[in-house]
Write a structure and sequence with these properties.
single chain, six-stranded mixed sheet, alpha/beta, Maf protein, about 190 residues, about 20% strand, 6 helices
Length: about 190
């Protein structure tokens, strides 16, 4: 996805959030603030975007997002458990209705057999719990970051739509051709 396409998603998210009175926060690691950048490319985003944290280092994940050190030690920074804790930590820190978190291995290095390059976990925390998705992107570092940001926006849009309709925040699976998506962890 290119920036124009992703900003269009951000525009749809903004309209939905403003109409429903919902707020959003971000917690990003491997995307380095790309989701927050895309959200704030849309004029008027201050009406629903409360803020975000780029937590690249584990100590920042722990200090700024309340990710337990024991979770980082047991599962590693790139895990469903850490994505969940990051999203819940951002939602708590900012007091937002929804929070998105992304942690992964963008590449080109850093992968292993157990955690290959492209492995990414995305989480959405809302008032009804937290959903986590696992994807393995096939692209290079830049493509993986943009794909992750696109899926994060799609997940936020789905969750905001569900909340606006009076249901629980649910997320959509990955769009065709963007990677392999599966539920990594159930709702909390």
């Amino acid at each position: 996805m290119d920036e124009t396409t992703l900003v269009a998603l951000a525009e749809r998210l903004q309209a939905r959030c403003l109409e429903a009175g919902l707020t959003v926060a971000t917690a990003e690691s491997c995307t380095g603030g790309l989701v927050a950048h895309l959200l704030t490319q849309v004029p008027g985003s201050s009406g629903y975007v409360l803020g975000g944290v780029v937590a690249y280092a584990d100590r920042i994940k722990a200090a700024m997002l309340a990710v337990p050190q024991s979770t980082l030690d047991a599962h590693g920074a790139v895990s469903a458990q850490v994505a969940r804790a990051m999203a819940e930590g951002a939602r708590g820190r900012f007091g937002s209705d929804l929070a998105v978190a992304i942690t992964g291995i963008a590449g080109p290095d850093g992968g292993s057999m157990a955690k290959p390059v492209g492995l990414t976990y995305l989480a959405i925390a809302g008032p009804d719990g937290t959903d986590v998705r696992r994807v393995v992107w096939p692209g290079d570092r830049i493509a993986n970051k943009w794909s992750s940001a696109g899926l994060a926006l799609e997940m936020l849009l789905a969750a905001a739509g569900a909340l606006a309709a009076g249901g629980p925040a649910v997320v959509a699976s990955a769009a065709p051709g963007t990677g392999t998506a599966e539920t990594a962890a159930g709702r909390s």
